[in-house]
Amino acid sequence: MTKQKSLIGTELDCITKHIEFTHLKNLEASKSVGHDLIKNLPSFVYGNLVNSEKIYKILHLNSKHVLLSRESIFTHRNLKIGESVNIRTFLREAYEQQASSNPIGFIILESIGSVDEDIAFYCERVLAVRGGFSRGRS
Amino acid sequence: MKKYWDDVEIGHSLVALTRPPVSRVQLAHFAAATDDFSALHLDDEFAKSAGFGSVFAHNLIVLGLSQDALKAFAYNMTIVSHSGTFLRLTWPGDILSARGVILRRYHKHDEYRIQFSLWVENQNSDLIMRGQATALLFKNAHDQTRHGREMPTVSQPAHEAFIERCERVLQQSQSHKSPLEKELA
Predict the structure, then answer these.
(1) Of A48, A67, A76, which has the smallest distance from its Cβ to B35's Cβ?
(2) Cβ of B161 under 8 Å from any chain A Cβ?
């Protein structure tokens, strides 16, 4: 059994992130448009609030080989400047598939973000590991 | 543009949203905004050593463009879910266009929901991302007045179902032990 498979169902990370004005300012600049500064953190970036570096380390993944394959966000509450969000990330699945020449590993992560113990979002993220788990090892 | 559920129909399209070419400065800003400083998006030499021709864009920039297209469709819409599957990489200089169409329009738990099919293409009409989103709208101006809000909010039953789903994830994880934990237990 690979290291990744042995960790299925476990919590990989728990982190608290503070939503700062600079996050929104940079996000606005990154879009190259001049409309008014956004007030809430847009939901499409919620999944990136996790500590990817730590998660890759725990899963023995080399960041050179990891690509974001799919992202799904479900949210009932906006994250605003000044709020602190607690995010817990779990490994739901890890498997390999044979592509045309090389295997590809797939990692499915689930993250749940809460503000003051009130669940704010659920994010499912699928990572593709080029070359599979053995080649994509850190 | 402000819209109500009564104004929209299945098959209505989002106005295509096209941005200027993706730049390396944009990638640096996005990295700072999301704390995603992966060298694959910032350092050409690193990206080349990983087998890519150069740095490439964070896929979430593509998802963000499709979210902006949704917001341009109706700024008073509350997006409750949004997903994207990334099919190709986006390179500096690429020009992305986000498009979408209404797939479903339904009433559930006193909510007026619409479901979109979304996709993003580059300047060569290559499909970069396909996805879906579900959003809430007020039924009409009278419905908005009745609720006394700018934006529709999720109903109590829908919120409870969401919380239940999240709590199931938390419980399943707590009850699952890794082989090492089982060995030590």
Answers:
(1) A48
(2) no
